[in-house]
Amino acid sequence: MARFIWGTPSPSLSRGKQLRVRRDIFGTLLGLLVFLGGIALLLFTFRIAYDMFTVPPVRALGLIKDQPVDLGSAGSNLVGSLLKVLLLIVMALVGSLIANRGIQLYTDSRGHIHESAPHLEESDDITRFTAEGGKEAS
Question: Is the pTM of the predicted complex or chain greater than 0.90?
Fold first, then answer.
């Protein structure tokens, strides 16, 4: 007959072995919180990227209508925009790594299988070997 631990039956093995599934509530909650934190970082990154890419290029590069292009300020603004894009990539990478770590914590805490010691029967070879003082039967 299978035993229930937190609503999950534990599988039985042959020869009287019993597997128990042990769950860790703290690890599960911590995994979920870390995962949700990573998702929040990703959403924040995408919001910043959306805001950055909805700015018209004329305004992003600091160009003024009906005036000649100042290459120094336009180049400086372009380099600034490229740095922002690189930082967004790094933020997205960090957010995805944090979310992945949360998934790992969650799955690792969901089910640790512990095997109990086998129950030996009197007719078992190991029991007879031990009962005879560790000598081989002739």
Answer: no
